[in-house]
Amino acid sequence: MNRIILGLIACVLTLSGCANTPVKKISAEQLSQFKEGKTTYNEVVTLLGQPTSVDNNSDGSKVVQYFSQQINIDGTTYIPFVNMFARGGDVATENVIFQFDTKGVLMKYSSSSSKQRL
After folding, report:
1. How far apart are CA 103 and CA 45, in angstroms?
2. In degrees rounded to 5, what are phi and psi of residue 59?
3. Is 67 helix (H, G, I), strand (E, B) or coil?
4. Which of 42, 46, 64, 111 could be 98's S-S partner, Cβ–Cβ 3.0 to 4.6 Å?
């Protein structure tokens, strides 16, 4: 019986945890370094790394997106019967969008974040 309980505990600890997208969160301090009308696309990529997506518009301007998501799963969701009373975990997302003109100079940026309970 002790082996079964230990096995269940090991399984829960193994399966619980979190999953993240490869892009790390962008801090408010990092965002404050970007100046509209001055910062270039190359400067943003140098500081933040490769973006999640780049949309090249027909006029030569571009929209760049950095998206991060962190999913924390509560290990109790894997225990039979206990999972009926437990929450599944939570999901935190952050999205930062940069808009650059045809010369690659930052026109504006915006950020949003959310957190949801599963």
Report:
1. 15
2. -85, 0
3. strand
4. 64
